Amino acid sequence: MLTLKGLAALFLLAGLAAAQQAPASGIDRSYLDPTCKPCDDFWRYADGGWLDKNPIPARFPSWGTGPVLAQQNRERLHAILDAAAQDASAKPGSNEQKIGDLYTSCLDTNAIDALGFQPLKPHLDRVAAIQSPADLKAALVAFDRLERPGPFDLIAIQDFKSSKETIAGIAAGGLSLPDRDYYVKDDPRSKHIREEFVKHVAKMLELAGDSPESAAASAATVLSFETVLAQATLTRVARRDPYASYHRINLSGLSALAPNFDWKPLLLQFGLSESTPINVTEPEFIKAFSHQLDALPLADWKTWLRWRLFDGSASDLAQPFRDEDFHFNRTILNGVTEQQPRWEICTIAVDRELGDALGERFVQKYFPPESKKRMLELVANLRTALGEELKEADWLTPETRRNAAAKLEAFYAKIGYPDKWRDYSGVTITRKSYFGDVTATTLDNRLYRLSKIGQPFDRNDWGMTPPTVNAYYNPPRNEIVFPAGILQPPMFDASADDAVNYGAIGAVIGHEMGHGFDDQGSKFDASGNLTNWWTPDDRKKFEQRAACVIGQFNTIDVGGGLHHKGELVVGEAMGDLGGLTLAYRAYHRSLGGKEPPVIDGFTGDQRFFLAYARAWATQFRPEAARMLLDSNPHPLPKFRCNATLQNMPEFQKAFGCKLGDAMVRPADQQCRLW
To answer: Which residues, including other chains, have CB under 8 Å from residue 302's CB and lie 6 or more apart?
Structure first.
């Protein structure tokens, strides 16, 4: 999603264990592969020793820095939740009681399994009772309130051209597979996935009591219906253009776009007035949805809705449904062969459903004030470095340079956690029913998000929970956000050598700042409004620089003849290149002209680049890597390391790489942003 751009792939990526044997430098030589020359494959040189000794655990699609750190945080949350679950003194209605009871009800698989799929019965009965188009439309509205998967999503979104205004949004939805291309591509893997998907739908419906013949017919109907929706959905590359997803209209305009659906009840059930402005992210999709209301028989709509109810709730139902959900979504799509232990699943669930309540306790224990202070210093130094880059960008006209500097000055940095914790007093949690608890939190979270529509701009809103190992840039808010979860060793250590901190978390900070000036973020101004602040000539020069990155990633053979989609990954690749360049400059600014010492045999620059490479050490299962290539805007981590460094003379100097080495692109082919 555009408004939640960020370093999403960090959760998947690999590298260092939490403990460091050499805290002074942050570099442990046992992580290296001394049989590989740094100028041949720096990723392998920096990470090969660690990768060889740390195979992917059976329950993960990949393993390394992101998952290791996420698992470490998860174990910390586990301890917090165990204590909350056993706290008999927790006041009823308190956050402590709620996180403890939600965790406990999730752990009670005996109670969950005993219910089978009965918790879904009221919703299934609602589908079964549909006898007319009016019944269908009423059911779609009702399901949207509970965020049951439907063909569209009502969301709260900042107006791209009036960024301080929160309006309603109608977004495309309804697809069960990871991306629209899975429905339309004819390569062998896509066909195989569709075949497995049909088997998966049929199996799930058989678990619900359908005969094999009926379930198979229903599964074919589901695939056919979703294929129509997929054909009307924008590609991921097309969605990278914010102008392609901005279409502000009013209720009458929405009704004209999709006349077969009465949109008024959808707004009214959330207390939204008929005058509420609405952005339709994909008009052609909404037209296709409206057409399907007439073109598709009611029986087919009912079949699809029934499937979507099971698909959206399988992980909260009895074990046979959980197992089948795991088989398709984790094994077939990601190659994972072992399910997570229940405590991990439940810890993730509490973080998802009651993120601020759990996050507040995480921050109290694991994110001291000194860490926030040090991060603010790093951000300030990176900001200064970017300002210097902009001043020296002689290809920019003075007008564009002023606008860029104004945008940089307006960057708002969020570090660690919200200034004000969310109030969960409106949600009731007990230990009696996990499905009931999830229903209650889902509704509370939905009402909370939609309550922002029409209200004054709230800078306190976060798009991630505090324990999350990730970061993001939000263009309409012009803000960079770093949750406390990623601000832990080895990504960030307030007591570690500056070279390592700048190479790891400094590159992340620079990456997120860089998103403000990538192919998407550069279309938003200092106030977060979608408007052109470039001169035509400057914009053309910028696009040429982006084209260099696109071309580089289009031509990289990642193995098996596969390639990245350059136009899909260009934003993240530009963020990596710009971010590391900024971090390097900021690191040298921090030295104040002094030469850093050689520690453990490495110069300061070498430690800087080793820290960067190790943040991207990664092992992927083949299925997970293929899915990342197909649908993720982040390049594969090996190439986030090597392809970035191939463009940096500073790296090549640090390790003595020469023209002709694999880690050196010819000077006239090296990409630079500023």
So the answer is: 127, 128, 130, 136
